[in-house]
Amino acid sequence: MTGDQICQALEDLRRNGVTFELILNRAVDLLHRSNSRFHWTGIYELFPDNVLRLGPFIGAPTDHVFIAVGRGICGTAVAENRNINVPDVAKAPNYLACSTSTQSELVVLIRKGRKIFAQIDIDSHEFNAFDPDTVTQVEKVADWLAEAYASASSTGVS
Ligand code: SME
User: Fold this and answer.
1) What is the 3-state secondary structure (H, E, C) of 44-101?
2) Ligand 1 near 59 CB (within 6 A)
3) Hey, whose CA ends up nearest to atom 1 of ligand 1?
4) What is d(CA 157, CA 122) in angstroms, rounded to the nearest whole number?
5) Those residues with Cβ within 8 angstroms of residue 86's Cβ, 6 or more apart along the chain or in another chain
6) pLDDT tens digit string along 86-135?
7) Residue 107 · residue 121 · CB < 8 Å
8) In this structure, what is the dihedral angle of CA atoms 87, 89, 93, 94, given to the nearest 10 degrees?
9) 156 vs 23: which has the higher pLDDT
10) Residue 158 pLDDT greater than 80, yes or no
11) What is the bridge-based pairing of β-strands 40-47 and 84-86?
């Protein structure tokens, strides 16, 4: 599935009144299955105490359920307000290991304007797994989710 197709599937769920939690689960599931190089796919949500908390994920269990802003690739992406594509995690000094099989990692922020709601984190067992088109596909899903987070928070649903 392309990023656009994933967004369409999520939009269909939203129109049918599916809960936000289930939409997040489905987003992770569809993303994970969209690319054979994705070996761990998850969403970390940013909490007001500046800690990322692991939400839905597919792949090996990780010790990194909570990550402070500024720590690891995930926390650095928030601290620097940017997406981070790491082609070789062994060369990233701030990398927090989830699995010894992971070779590359992509973090794409779920943000609208200045507000960061969460992030999509993907690990691959291949080096340099995230080419520009792959990143674009993930960004499309992140942008759709940002709109969903924005409307969920404005209606008090989370
Ligand atoms: N590698 C991440 C930690 C999360 S696990 O990969 C799931 C990091 O460096 O922040």
Assistant:
1) EEEECCCEEEEEEEECCCCCCCEEECCCHHHHHHHHCCCCEEECCHHHCCCCCCCCCC
2) no
3) 96
4) 26
5) 73, 92, 95, 104, 105, 106
6) 999 999 999 999 899 999 999 999 999 999 999 999 999 999 999 999 99
7) yes
8) 100
9) 23
10) no
11) unpaired
**Residue with token string 């993930």:** 138
User: What integer pLDDT is reported at residue 155 of this predicted model?
Assistant: 67
Look up residue 67 and give its two tokens.
């990550």
| Residue of 98, 100, 109 to mutate, ligand 1, most atoms within 8 A of C-beta | 98
Mutate which of 95, 108, 120, 130 for ligand 1 pocket (most atoms within 8 A of beta carbon) = 95
Q: What is the pLDDT of residue 98?
A: 86
What are the structure tokens assigned to 135, written together? Answer: 């990143």
pLDDT in tens, 20-53: 999 999 999 999 999 999 999 999 999 999 999 9
